[in-house]
Amino acid sequence: MPFDGIVLSAVASRLSALLTGGKIDKIYQPEADELLLHISAGREKHLLFLSANSANPRACLTGERGAYPQNPPAFCMLLRKHIQGGRIARVEQKGTERILECTVDTVNELGFSKNKRLIVEIMGKHSNIILVDAQSERIIDSIKRLTPDMNRYRQTLPGCPYIDPPSHGKPPWYAVERARVAASLSAVGNPFRTGGTPDAARVAKAILTLAQGIGPLAADELAAEALADAETVLAGANSAGGAEEALADAIFRALQRLADKTRRGAFSPVVYADGEGKPLDFHAFPIPSLEGACEALRFDDIDAAIEYYYANRIASNRVRQKSADLLRAAKNSLDKQFLKKQRLLEDLTRAENADEHRLFGELLTANLHVLQAGQKSARLTNYYDGAELEIPLDPRLSPSQNAQRHYKLYAKAKTAVVEKKARLAETDKEIAYLESVLSFIENAATAEEADALRLELAEAGYLRRPGKSAAKKTPKPAPLTYVVSGGLRAEVGRNNRENDLLTFKRASGGDLWLHTKDIPGAHVILFTGGREAPAEALREAAAIAAWHSKGRASENVPVDCTLAKYVKKPSGARPGMVIFTNNRTLYVKPALPRDG
């Protein structure tokens, strides 16, 4: 669910308890629309993460420091000037809207106390972080500047008065009156279907128009709660008006219960995930409609829930964004290699069918006495089978020169066969290499993996080489590690450079090497210490190899297995490209070990 006002209520409550009175020690801007504030409060240090990212805006405490740019952006420098060293006077939510306000006590150059407000607006594509002078209510600057061309009603430029985002006349949920509930129900039309059954969708729509900060999913849950509360009364209602009144009462009570829980801080943060642990939704309170349908992960505080949700949810999106150009470059290069292969095969077919040039040369040489200069073709009898052949001639050449021309074409074709076969073999190797890189890009799970693959493609000549500053940040090899049956360790290369490292540096001759058969994928080393691996451990390692391959979605994947000493690297081969012998093939379903 989006970061709604209910979630922000839990965040504001926690931040107020932990950060009030805290000192802002450092400010960083890791991304164009993100801030990280280092705050000392009491005897503890906290990291406050603020994001105005259009897709994933949020505010929470975090344990992740991240990477900081060497040259801080202008907005970061402005915040350092105005609020770094200041103390947080209060943290509060504006009403129940998705707006978080941090009031900071600072001292100016003359020693006078000045209050500043750092306002975080968590509103989807309209999200923003704005620094406002508390006395004049004018904007000092914002992380996203809105000009009159972009928004006539509200600009976020330095010197402009700060105007609250439009609330559309909605009060906070704790201030909703009973009369407003009845009016909202009437505004959406008859809240009952034919036959008097309550229409949950219309009830939820009415709740959405009632108060600030209630998102669609929260409205659905409040509607379900209200309908369950009013079920008995609705069943006994003897008129449409009475039923609507009963429903309005139930909605009003549901909002009062919500107000009471948020006021008391009785939050129960939960993240709902699929069977593989990928987050699907989160909220400050359990969502009954998702209980049982998804895996529910309970957290002690809202920050931990937000961290888990976004760390596991956004990571894949960020990796996809970061690897989009890699995917495009690899696919384009692969398409070029396939086109090159097709043309080579066509040339090879023509070259292998060049025996007719030898025959033409022989027939012309044998019949020079009947040929004349200037002929465009000659009809001669093939003395091998008695058939007549129409032989093309160049009228500019003599009959003898035409014969020599066909002999030369035959000789050239024979040379071309050898050359085309060699180039075809090289092209097949490049296709195999690019398919392996493409598989790694598609399976990349972290930004670091994408960076390593970017470097690999650059070293292979498929991307522009990074500059000196980027080259210094070469990702360190960090193969994935799993523990299989018998306590044996299996390591997996995340790219072809790590494949080579595992196979030829880390593995001993007696360790087992695994790779999907004729399918692009990672090298897997099962470290056995020279002992025979248990059958179950071997199958688990093979399943890991199948998982880290292009065959991940298949049910039955062939995996080759041999001792590492039988794996060799041909001279001049691309990273990750090997030949091997003494192998056997296992057929497994792709999977990761449960304790991995």
Can you characterise this structure?
- The chain folds into 4 domains: 5-142, ibrinogen binding protein from staphylococcus aureus domain (ibrinogen binding protein from staphylococcus aureus fold, Roll); 173-267, no CATH class; 320-476; 477-588, no CATH class.
- The longest helix is centred in the middle third of the chain and has 51 residues, at 302-352.
- It starts with a helix and ends in an 8-residue tail after the last strand.
- The protein is 40% helix and 20% strand.
- The chain has helices at 5-19, 74-82, 178-187, 200-208, 216-236, 240-264, 302-352, 355-366, 399-443, 447-459, 468-471, 496-506, 535-547; strands at 23-28, 34-41, 44-51, 58-62, 87-93, 99-107, 113-121, 128-133, 138-142, 270-273, 279-283, 295-298, 377-381, 388-392, 480-483, 489-492, 512-516, 524-527, 557-563, 567-568, 579-580, 584-588.
- The strands form 6 sheets. Strands 15-16-18-17-19-22 form a 6-stranded antiparallel β-sheet. Strands 5-6-7-8-9 form a 5-stranded antiparallel β-sheet, covered by helices on one side.
- The protein is built from 13 helices and 22 strands.
- With 596 residues, the protein is of the alpha+beta class.
- Helix 5 (216-236) crosses helix 6 (240-264).
- A hairpin with a 5-residue loop joins strand 5 (87-93) and strand 6 (99-107).
